[in-house]
Amino acid sequence: MSSIISDQEFARLISRRAKVLLSISKYLTQQEFNEDFLLRPLIGDLLSHSSQVEEYLDTYGTKNNIQWSPFRLTVATIKNFSEINYELLNINHSLPRQTFVFVSRNFFGATDSAIKFVIDILLKSMKRLLQQAGDLCLSVSEEPFDISDYFEELPTGQLASDHGSRQVEKVPITITKLATAFLNLEKDCGLIDLYDQIKRQRDIEPYLTILNEENLRIFEFRFHNLQSLYDTHISETDAVSVDSHMKALRSDIGTTLHLLQIATVLTHYFERHLALIEDDQAETGRQLVDPQKLLEMLKDYCTNYISQYLGCGKDLSQGMLARYAEIGQIEVSIPRYRGFHVRPSTLISALVLHYGTDVTMEFEDRNFNASMPLDIFRVNEKINAQKRRWLATEIVRLRLVQEKDSNRSISEIVKGIILMLADMGKLVIYSESLDFFPKENEKEGTLLERVMDEITQFQVTGQIDIEVDFKVNFIGDKRALADIEVLAEAGYGEDYLGNNIPLPAKLMFLRK
Length: 512
Fold this sequence. Notes:
Strand order of the largest sheet: 1-6-2-3
Number of domains: 2
Number of strands: 6
C-alpha cells in the first residue's frame, strides 16, 4: 500500500511547481482586457505551466481527493482554454500573411469574438485558481511580474527566399497527389454535410455522437498527416512555383487543422467536465464554462468555418485536378443486376463528382455524362433494347417458338421459354412466381412478337433480366477511371441479385 502524503507537504510541493502559473494568473487577473492577453509567448507559457501542474496533480491522484480535485479541475480548465487561445492567436497571426483564399470576411471578426470568449473563461478560471490557492495555503510569489519578457516583435515581411527550390520529376503527379489526398480526406470526414444538417436543425447536441472527441482526434491526425505530406514532398519544390494554388491549398489545410484542434479541445472539455449528470465536478466546471456557449462556439465558429474551408479546399483541389488531368479510356462490363439502375449510376456519379473532372460514358457511339445519374439511366434504355434484340435472335436461332405452338396459351409458352433460357444461363429469374401476364386477347402480331412482348414485360418489371456481358467505355481523368474500374470489378456494390455488398477499401469514401 502506498504511503499518504499530508496536505501540508503536498501544498509545499505544489507551491513550488505552480509558481509561474500562479504568477501569470495573478498578473492577468489584475489587468483590464488589453493587448497583454494577445501575446502568444505569454499564452504559450500559461499552457506549458498549466500542463505541467496538471500532470503533477494527476501523478498524486488529486482527481480522487475531495480537497484537491476542484483545484485540479481549475488547472485543467486553464490548460484547455489556453491551448484554444493559442490556436486562435496562431490563426490571427498566420492567416493574413499566408492565405490566398478568404472563405468569409466574417471569419476574422468571429475569431476575435472567440478569443474574447476564451479569455473571459481564462480570467474567471485564474481568479478561481488564486482563491483556491489561498484556501489550500499555497504561496504565491510577490515578485514583480515583467510582461516585457513576453513582448512579441513581429515586423512585416519575410526573409528572402534565396534557398532555391528542389526539382521534382513530374510536377503534375505531385500536384494531383496532394489534391486527390485532400478530396479523399474531405469526403471521409463528411464535415461539410454534417454542418449542413446542424445548420438546418440549429442545434448541435443531436450530432455530438458524431462530432465527438474520438472522431475529431482522428480527423485532426489525418489533416496533420496531409499537412506533413505538403511540407515534406511539395514545399520548397518547383511544383509550388508552377501552380500558385498550391500555397493556397496549404494555407487551407493549415487553417482547417487549427480549427480541428480547437474543436477537439472543446469537445474534450465538454465530454470530460460538463456533460456529466449530477456530478460535483461537472457542476464546478459549469460555474467556469457555460456549456451552451461552449457548444455555440463549437457549432458557429469551429464546425461552420471548418465546413467553409473544406469547401474552399475542395474547389481548389478539383480545379488543380482538372488542369493536370491525364486522359485515358477503359472498357468495363455493365452491372449484372438490371444494368445501370439507381445504385450503380449513383455510385459512378458520386465518384466522378468527387474528382471534379469530366468523365464520359460511351455506348453504341453515343456519349453520356458520367457525373449525372439521369444521363447514366439513359444508357440503360439502350442496353435493355440491345438485350431484347439479342434475346429475340437467340430464340429464333434455338427455334424456341414454332407455329405448332400456336394452339398453346402464351403464358405457357413464355414460362417454358424463360425456364429453358434460365437453365442455359441466358437470363436470370428474380421473381419466384412468374404470374404477371396481360390479357392475351389484347396482344396482336406474330407468335414470336407476342412472346417477346410478354418477356419484355417481365424484364421491365424486374422479374427477369437477360444475361449478356455488354461493355461500356469510360473516357476521362485516369484517377477517376481507375476507381471506376475497381467499382466495376466489385460488381458496382451489388451481387447478382441486387443485394448491397461492401465496397473495396479504396472506395469507402462513396459510402459517406
